[in-house]
Task: inverse folding
């Protein structure tokens, strides 16, 4: 999505075209050779990459006629997709209902309410620790979302199903990366939630150069996509690692490898991003950069790796990431 010149007609015209930053200080301080280029998705107005899919899903639905004027929009969210949808729906005049687990941070619910959304908080699955969302907790949220969709006769902006999710990253994020790097990319690695950003970006990169390698990043204790046994689904990396093996967007997508990151690695790397690069992000950003460092320490020494930094550290102020 190209930004218009001059004055934007609304905030949604500022979605996309996020900067790509060379993490040269962090790489040098780690003592590895190569480059990590980080796409700062918190430059989107809702401070995350999910603004892109919120806009794409709604505009796709408008074009197809599946979303009627003034109809309520609903979706389950860890907070970022809900924020993106809150912004888009506020501008376009759709009431929005976000359904979220109480395991997600309160900052996200507060932000969505600020944009006029109704936020329904759902109890976590029995035994789930506070501040962590497992696949079991997500299933509880899904059931409540389905119930409310029927009750409200709402349009479900389903981020696990609608093609607008991966298309947003194929049409925009991936193409932006190629433009910003002049196509000089050796690899891409991405922490998987719905799988939309991995599928969309990797498709765009591979159409340009089939030799670009694309890696999935997962929590070490819940690396189900890598075929590993789930040791503990209750990891701290919010927004993904839900231990869901059948993600629609990954079907038929070439995956060159799987990287596992611990809670501590994600936290340490997020803090290093702040202290060494002046970049304030969340858990999944730390996981992506930690995974890229793994690659530079291994077979991709000296190569250029691109990662997304999905959101802002402002959304995690109440967690032990920044306490």
Result:
């Amino acid at each position: 999505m190209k930004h218009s010149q001059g004055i934007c007609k609304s905030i949604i015209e500022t979605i996309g075209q996020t900067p790509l930053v060379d993490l040269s200080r962090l790489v040098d301080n780690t003592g590895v050779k190569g480059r990590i280029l980080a796409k700062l998705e918190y430059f989107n107005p809702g401070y995350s990459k999910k603004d892109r899919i919120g806009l794409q899903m709604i505009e796709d639905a408008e074009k197809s006629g599946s979303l009627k004027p003034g109809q309520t929009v609903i979706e389950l969210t860890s907070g970022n997709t809900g924020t993106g949808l809150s912004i888009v729906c506020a501008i376009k005049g759709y009431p929005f209902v976000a359904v979220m687990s109480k395991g997600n941070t309160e900052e996200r619910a507060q932000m969505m309410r600020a944009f006029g959304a109704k936020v329904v908080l759902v109890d976590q699955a029995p035994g789930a620790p506070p501040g962590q969302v497992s696949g079991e907790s997500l299933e509880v949220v899904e059931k409540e979302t389905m119930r409310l969709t029927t009750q409200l006769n709402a349009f479900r902006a389903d981020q696990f199903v609608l093609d607008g999710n991966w298309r947003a990253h194929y049409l925009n994020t991936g193409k932006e990366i190629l433009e910003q790097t002049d196509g000089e990319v050796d690899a891409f690695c991405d922490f998987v939630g719905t799988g939309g950003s991995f599928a969309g970006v990797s498709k765009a990169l591979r159409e340009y150069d089939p030799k670009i390698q694309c890696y999935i990043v997962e929590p070490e204790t819940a690396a189900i996509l890598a075929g590993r046994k789930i040791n503990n689904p209750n990891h701290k990396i919010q927004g993904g690692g839900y231990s869901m093996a059948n993600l629609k967007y990954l079907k038929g997508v070439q995956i060159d490898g799987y990287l596992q990151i611990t809670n501590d690695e994600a936290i340490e790397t997020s803090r290093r991003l702040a202290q060494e690069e002046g970049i304030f992000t969340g858990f999944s950003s730390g996981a992506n950069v930690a995974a890229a460092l793994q690659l530079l320490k291994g077979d991709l020494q000296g190569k250029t790796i691109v990662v997304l930094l999905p959101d802002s550290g402002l959304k995690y102020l109440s967690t032990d990431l920044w306490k």
